[in-house]
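This entry is retained here.
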Amino acid sequence: MKTRMLVVLTLVILGLVSCKKSSSSDEPVNTFEGGKLFKSPSGSFYIAQLNGTFHQMGRQYGLLLKQQLGDFYKEAIVDFLIGEKGIKYEDLVTSGRNYYNDFPKIFKDYLDGIAETSGLTSDQTYIMSASFLMIYSTGCSSLSAWGDYTPDHSVVAGRNLDLVSSNLRLFSKYFHIVVWNPTGYPASVANIDFIGSVFYQTSFNNKGIFLELQTGQASDTTNVLARENTNNILLESLFRNISSDAVDSWFQTTLPTCGLIMNASFPDHATIYEWATYRVVLRQAQGLISASNDFIDPSWHNYPIIFFDSTNQGIGYTCTRRTNLIKLGELNKGNITPQKMMEIFDLTIPQGGATFPEGGPVKTIYSVVVQPSQLKIWLKVREYSGWEEIDLKNYFGN
């Protein structure tokens, strides 16, 4: 277990898009067995549209992204982890196999399909699947607005993903979106991730449900490793949950392996789940809600107090980031469009925003803005691309 955790945490070191519109008339750059590969409008990253069983979708993915998978494996695994960091290949294999064994059948089928067509071995595929296996630590901020805060009263949500890992930016060109349209499931799911990786941080389904994860370990330091992998159950849940009531019921009956904070945004409202290893609290608001990295619902009692630094800012400026976002939301009440939300998330902490400025140990890796009612997202990978609009209706199939 210790070897596995060591390698998994090291894999975190890997790393991670002018706002243009995508068009339904865009031609795929490659097709295979019912799957299609597209480039985003600016050409910054790939969008894989997959259809069928999970095994079929894996085969599609492996062939469509064969060149990119091979390149990423060489740069990230062979050259960086093995060559530069000195990690033994055998340890990576052990970690990859353990990660694979934790998956439910659907994702095992998917990875096995990738191995059949990608030119990578099964072990190499399993190693790749863990390449963005993040530790739940450091940062991440979210803001959701609706009702009186947006012009049409529908939800507009934004989020930053922050990490202490500048090495992530070495691999920004391998950042992509995979869209699964599985046979026999009520929902399709788009996942924002690295090529070859199967990990949950920011996902969106075709029913207008956007779920993004932020660490809550400052408020719940417990780890329950005996439970089913939280990454797996979160990702799988989006294929099944097609309403806000279903999402709420799922969170009320499911506990994570560690303390987390989940932003759940729907077409007409948003909620925050402060998700501890022993209970969940649904935090609600009227039109504007924000989260960072500590539990703040008044119903919490006797949970660990967050550690504050000498400036009394807490883990990764958690209080400052959340307060800044609420202030900006109030300042722009009635006018929070996707464009305005992008402007909000472009502001750094010293500028009164939530994004980490360059030069410090914590990096904002990427930012996402979502309009659930329109099934649209806007992506920006820091130091790699500008904001780019993606209309997911063009890629969802269910």
In short: DSSP finds ten helices and 16 strands in the chain. Confidence is low (pLDDT under 50) at residues 1-25, 307-312.
